[in-house]
Amino acid sequence: MTYTLSDLGWSSHFMMQLSIKQLEALTPARIISVHKNGFSALCETGPIRLMAKPDDTQNITVGDWVLVDEIGLIHQRLDRLTTLSRRAAGDDVREQMIAANVDVLFIVTSCNSDFNLARLERYLVLASAAGCQPVCVLTKPDLCDSPEKYAQQAQTLGADLPVLTVDARDPAQAALLADWWRKGQTAALLGSSGVGKSTLTATLTGQDITTQGIRDDDAKGRHTTTARHLYQAQHGGWLLDTPGMRALRLTDVSEGIGEVFSDLADLAEQCRFRDCSHVAEPGCAIQAEIIAGRIDSTRLKRWQKLLHEDVRNSETLAQSRSRNKATTLYHKRVMDDAKGRKKR
Ligand SMILES: Nc1nc2c(ncn2[C@@H]2O[C@H](COP(=O)(O)OP(=O)(O)OP(=O)(O)O)[C@@H](O)[C@H]2O)c(=O)[nH]1
Ligand SMILES: [Mg+2]
Fold first, then answer.
1. pLDDT for res 313
2. What digits encode the pLDDT tens for the residues 245-288?
3. How far apart are CA 110 and CA 166, in angstroms?
4. What's residue 87's pLDDT?
5. In the structure, how many helices (H) and strands (E) does the chain have?
6. Which of 32, 96, 230, 311 holds its CA 20 to 30 A away from the CA of 281?
């Protein structure tokens, strides 16, 4: 199968980065999956396997555009339009790439115990920080009594947020997603394991993609998909299926938080004290709205939690080490004091 570059998502943003020399000597290709020993990509002539140079530090991910030579060696990664990333798990402070050059983020959850407003909000912050259009997708409406209740709750996260309720297995319903991105554009499916990301991918692409039932006791999935892969949907758009996420740790997303919680950030400007903690200070504009019943107090808590977490997660490795050292020293001092008291 052959493609035009614009079929693959190429635009002037990428074209402008090429010199005439590069245009003559190298070929643009789009990464569709990342392997241990290389990459699968698509170029105008079809699928190709690529290798990065041994000393490559470009952090190439799915969705990236790269320039390659005739033996499939990557020479350059082109600047991205958007970057979806998160902070690695555990004590690791590194940024972990999810995907690049994504136009639309489908935030997928099910009408069951997976549904969680705080988690959806995290994905909204991620989309906003990356500059992607978020669309909330609620699957498995056929398995619950009142799917509209889930949709109403999701809609409280933003009047402008598109909320789609679809049986992921039904092509007519899944087609609602196709209205949100066009031929040549790229959409990504993110969400917990078992919510139906691969089912949606299979329905929208017509390809046979492995899916698996969820656990009966807690509705959790079995982490069936283990790698990110970009597929072409039937209408010509690109669709990224991803492994289910256990936790989404955000990093460097203060602007995204500001946008998703712009109502609270605006109110905070009107508080009497600049350093108002919005708990019990006189003249707190946010508490006034909560008392008036116009804002839910849990939303304030979620905002403050994300702000706090962003500061924590955005710290550098050196800052993290120095904080850990300070905590260890503090604990040592407390233990020494306690020992001293016992002796006395
Ligand atoms: N009844 C019903 N079942 C669905 C729906 N969407 C997905 N399923 C089922 O839910 C199970 C999990 O679906 P998957 O598509 O594998 O979920 P996933 O999000 O890709 O999961 P991971 O790959 O583990 O991240 C499968 O048995 C699907 O058939 C839906 O809308 N309705
Ligand atoms: Mg899957």
1. 79
2. 988 888 888 899 999 999 999 999 999 999 999 998 999 999 99
3. 10
4. 85
5. 11, 13
6. 311
- Pick the ligand that lies closest to the CA of residue 243: 1
Q: Which atom of ligand 1 is nearest to the CA of 245?
A: 25
Cβ atoms 166, 220 nearer than 8 A: no
Separation of CA 64 and ligand 1 centre (Å): 27
Q: What is the pLDDT of residues 312-333, one digit of tens each?
A: 877 665 565 565 566 556 566 6
Return the amino acid letter for 296: D
DSSP 142: G
Which structure tokens are listed for 273? 């004290």
Query: Is the pLDDT reported for residue 17 higher than 70?
Result: yes
Given ligand 1 and candidates 207, 212, 216, 240, which is best to mutate, with the most ligand atoms within 8 Å of its CB? 212
- Asked if residues 147 and 136 have their Cβ atoms less than 8 Å apart, the reply is no
Could you give the CA distance from residue 253 to residue 190 in angstroms, rounded to a whole number?
Answer: 17
CA–CA distance, 213 with 110 (Å, rounded to integer)? 13
d(CA 253, CA 86): 10
Instruction: Collect all residues with Cβ–Cβ distance below 8 Å to 29 and sequence separation of at least 6.
Output: 41, 42, 43, 48, 50, 65, 66, 67, 68
Average pLDDT taken over every residue of the chain: 91
- Ligand 1 binding pocket (C-beta < 6 A) is 139-140, 142-143, 167-169, 193-199, 211-214, 221-225, 243-244
Structure tokens at 295: 């804002």
Q: What is the pLDDT of residue 95?
A: 83
Cα(244) to ligand 2 centroid in Å equals: 7
Q: Answer for the pair 66, 41: CB distance below 8 angstroms, yes or no.
A: yes
Tens-place pLDDT, residues 121-162: 999 999 999 999 999 999 999 999 999 999 999 999 999 999
Q: How far apart are CA 198 and CA 77, in angstroms?
A: 28
